[in-house]
Write a structure and sequence with these properties.
The structure is a single chain. The chain is an all-beta fold. Helices cover about 0% and strands about 65% of the residues. The protein contains no helices and eleven strands. Strands 2, 4, 5, 6, 9, 10 and 11 form a seven-stranded mixed β-sheet that branches.
Length: about 120
């Protein structure tokens, strides 16, 4: 069973910064880790990164957010700078990984962490 433990959400002012982290356990090999965010009625990819370090960003966060991965601890980080009120959402960590208990490649999501940006 895969566990994703997220931390780092909270309240920030517009123009401020927050750093999210997500640690995966129960996996043997990670292919990709990343973050989605959800607002009422909409869910979309924020950023993702492969084990090899190749990253992809949503257009809305390019130049402001930076994703990184620590393969030694199976942890993904999302550094969010120049935050905007439009970034307010629940942020969900995800991973596509080889699950230790099943030996199957599986996509798993965390419980989510709230990010609120005030204007």
């Amino acid at each position: 069973q895969v566990q994703l433990v997220e931390s780092g959400g909270g309240l920030a002012q517009a123009g401020g910064s927050l750093r999210l982290s997500c640690a995966a356990s129960g996996v043997t090999v990670i292919d990709t880790m990343g973050w989605y965010r959800q607002t009422p009625g909409q869910r979309g990819l924020v950023a993702r990164i492969t084990r090899g370090g190749t990253s992809t960003y949503a257009d809305a966060v390019k130049g402001r957010f930076t994703i990184s991965i620590d393969n030694s601890t199976n942890t993904v980080f999302l550094q969010m700078n120049s935050l905007e009120p439009e970034d307010t959402a629940i942020y969900y960590c995800y991973t596509n990984a080889l699950v230790a208990s099943t030996a199957q490649w599986t996509v798993s999501f965390g419980q989510g962490t709230q990010v609120t940006v005030s204007s």
